[in-house]
Amino acid sequence: MRVIFLAVVLSVVAQAQDKSAGQRSFEARCAICHGGDGHGTDRGPAIYNRTAARDNQSIATVVRGGLPAGMPAFTVAQLPDAELADLTTYLRTLQPVVRTFRRPELRETITLTDGTKLDGAAVANGLEDHQMRTDDGKLHLLRRVGNQFREVTSTVDWPTFHGDMSGNRYTTMTQITKDNVKNLGARWVYTMRNAQGLQDTPQVVGGVMYVTNVNTCIALDAGSGRFLWQWNRPTTQGVMGASSNRGVGVAGDRVFIVTDNAHLVALNRYTGEQVWDTEMADWHQNYGATGAPLAVGNLVIGGITGGEAGTRGFLAAYEQATGKEVWRFWTVPKAGDPGSETWQGKDIEHGGGPTWITGTYDAATDTLFWPTGNPAKEYNGDDRKGDNLYTDCLLALDAKTGRLKWYYQFTPHDTSDWDATEIPVLVDANFQGQPRKLVLHADRNGFFYVLDRTNGKVLLAKQFLKELTWASGIGADGRPILTGQENTTAGTRVCPSQDGATNFYSPSFIPATGLFYFQTFEKCSVYTKGPDEWTAGKNYLGGVMRMAQGGTPEHILRAVDINTGAIRWELPEAAGANGWGGTISTVTGLVFFGEESGEFAAADAATGKLLWSFNGNQNWKASPMAYMFDGKEYLAVIAGGNVVAFALGD
C-alpha cells in the first residue's frame, strides 16, 4: 500500500511540475471565470483570442486596472511583476479548439409500453421527457407513461431554412385556426448562452430541432426544448461581415453548417461529432459565410458573404459524403468571360455579388434559384460602369452542374446596397387566367416581381412603396425605368433606404387567397460617394450612408395580389422601422409575423385583422417556422437569443 501511495504522490508532483509557472498562475487566478482553456464560462468571456492583438504592456494595463464589466484589478502585491510576466507568456499559448459537448451519459435499459427493451446511454431527461442514444448512434425521444416509456412521433418536419424547398413558409397543418389562435401559448423556451439578435430559423428533422449561432450548432428535443448536444468552434478574430448564422442544412445522418471564416462543416446529426470540414474561401481575402446550406440530392450548396468587403462572389456545391467541391458558379465573371463586358473598370476584381441567403429548388426541373447581393464598391460605381452582372440577380442554375440556365437582374449597377437576397418563392398558380410556373419576389429595391420560372421573363413588376425615388417603373423589357438619380459627393437622398423596402426576412404565400405576405420598410437614406481602395481586412464601400432626416419611418406588413400587384391590405406596426422578423402563413388563413414592438403576432390572412400576439420584448431578426411533434402543431421563432415554441393548450 505504501508503494502505491508513494507512486500516486509522485505522479501528482510530476504533473504539477509539468505545468509552467504561467499556467499555474492562470489556473489559480483566471480559470474560474475564463475557463481552463481560456474559452470562457458563464462568469467571464473567452480570452484565448484576445492576446494576439495586444502587446505585453496593454495586457498588464488590463490586469492591473481591471475592467468595468466585472474583471477585478490585481495589484503588484497580489500578482508580482514576475508572475504577471509568466502569466502573459502562458496566455499567448492558448489556442482555439473545436468542441462537441454532451452531458455525461449513463448506460441504462428501459422498457417501452409495448414491452420492448431499449439499451443505450441516457442523453437527458426531465419530469415527462427522456432522451436515449442506442448503440447504433440513433437518438430516441421518449415520454414517460408510468414506469415505462413511449417513443414520440414526428410527422411534419421543417428540414430546410425555408421549411419547403420552394421557399414558401406555408403550412398545411390545421390545428391552429382563426377561432382558437387566442389559446396559443408558449410551451417551452431554450435560451442560447451569450446570444442576442439571432437570425437563425430552427430546423426540425425526426423530432430533433437544430439551432445555430456563429460557429455553433445545438440540438434540442423539439417537444420540450431539452438540450441534446452542442458543437462549436471559436469565432475567428478579424473575419469580415460574418457576425450571424442563419441555420443548417440536413440530409440523412448529417447536419451542415457554415462558419464565420467561410468553411462548410458536416456533423453527425445524432451526436454532433464533426465528420468533415471544407474551406470554401480564404477568409483573409474578406470572405465569410452566414447562410443556411441547402441539401439537394447528394450535394450540399453553400454561399458566402463579403459584398461590403469587395470579395468576388460565388455559389458552390459539395459532396455530402466527403465535402469535395463539385461545381462553382462565380457571380462576378473574370475579365474576358461572358458578363465581364458589364464591368468597365478595375472593380471587376473585387466586385461583390455575395450569396448569403439560402436559395430555393425545383425538383421537377432540377433547378436552383439563388439570389445574389450587391456589387462593390457599393456606394460608388465610377470604377464599375455597366450593369455589373451577376450582382443583384436571381440565378437559375442546374443543380448537378452549376450551369446557368437564365438570370434576371433586379437592380443593374446598384449603388444603394440593394442585395437581391430576398427569398425567391416558387409556386404553381393561375396567373391572369393561365396556369403558370412562377417565381414570386419582393425586392429590396421597392418592386414586387412575378417571373416565369422556366425562362426568367418578367410577367409583373409593381411598386409597393409609398415613396420610391430611383425608378419610375419597370419597362416591358424588364429593365428599370431610371429617374437619373445618382450618388454624389455632396450627398443624395434615395428611397428606399439601404435597409431596403424589404429584406432577407421570409415572405409567405397562401394559394387560396392568392396573396403574398411580407414585411416592408418605408424609410430613406442619404448616400455620399467618395474614393476607396480595396484592402484585405477592411470594408470596400466607396462612401458613406446615413438615414435621411424628416418623416416618420414605417414598418408595415403587406398582402399583395400576385395577379395584379395591388396591395389588398396592410397592417401598420408600432412606430419605427428596425424590426427584421419574417412571416409564416397557414392553410387555416393565418399570417404569423414578428411585429416592430417585439410581439409575435397573428393576423387574418384575408383581411389583415390582428387576432393574437405574444410579447417577446425583442427586436426581431429571425423568421418563424412550424412542425408537428407527437401529434401537436408547434410554431417556433427565435426572439433575441431565446428559442420559443408555441402550441395550443391541452
Largest sheet: 5 strands, antiparallel
Q: What separation lies between the terminal Cα atoms?
A: 63 Å
Outline type? globular
User: What percentage of amino acids are in beta strands?
Assistant: 35-45%
By CATH, the superfamily of the largest domain comes out as Quinoprotein alcohol dehydrogenase-like superfamily
Measured as a percent range, the helix fraction is under 10%
- The averaged pLDDT comes out at 92
CATH topology name of the largest domain, in short, is Methanol Dehydrogenase, Chain A
> Could you say which structural class the secondary elements and strand pairing correspond to?
mainly beta
Taken together, the total number of domains comes to 3
- Main sheet: which strands, in order across? 1-12-11-10-9
What does this entry show, briefly?
It contains 5 helices and 44 strands.
